[in-house]
Amino acid sequence: MASTVVVTRPWVIHPLHAAFLGGVFPFYLATLLADYAYWTTYQIQWANFAAWLLVGAMVLTTLALLSGVVGLVRGSRRFAYVIVLAITWVLGFVNSLHHARDAWAVMPGGLVMSVILALLALVATVLGLCCLRNAGGVR
């Protein structure tokens, strides 16, 4: 029985890109949890935690988006992933501006935007990492 090695390079993302993308969802989820903790306790430190976690999420989203655009330039055909990641970046920026307000003015808009961002980050992560199972191998 003969085996063939199939390599599908345009669909495989770079390991550094995967690392950036792998950190996007946990940061947005942690921001959501910190916003929820602030909404239930009104301890101002939770709003500060949410704002800093959102900064970390935005840094990783920016790096993943830049990696995705480079992947598109190099021949990847994953437009939906880059578009969802760009929408996540724009809404994350708006949420960052919302979290820059006074702590009492953050709720409930910050919590709603954090829920939306966590869902968008999950969709972007699934779209971005779904190609790794087809990375090539013996068929």
Structure description:
The protein has 139 residues and is mainly alpha-helical. It has one domain. The chain has helices at 15-41, 44-73, 79-99, 103-106, 109-129; strands spanning 5-6, 137-138. Strands 1-2 form a two-stranded antiparallel ribbon. Helix 1 runs antiparallel to helix 5 (109-129). The N and C termini lie close together (11 Å). The relative contact order is 0.22.
What is this structure, in a nutshell?
This is DUF2231 domain-containing protein. With 139 residues, the protein is mostly helical.
- Low-pLDDT segments, ≥5 res: none
Q: Kindly report how far apart the N and C termini lie.
A: 11 Å
Radius of gyration, in Å, reads: 18 Å
Report the sheet-strand fraction: under 5%
Give the helix tally. Answer: 5
Oligomer: single chain
Helix proportion: over 70%
Query: How many extended strands?
Result: 2
In total, the number of domains comes to 1
Largest sheet: 2 strands, antiparallel
The global form is elongated
Q: What is the string of helix and strand elements? A: EHHHHHE
Give, in spatial order, the strands making up the sheet with the most strands: 1-2
By secondary-structure content and strand pairing, the structural class works out as mainly alpha
User: Averaged pLDDT, please?
Assistant: 88
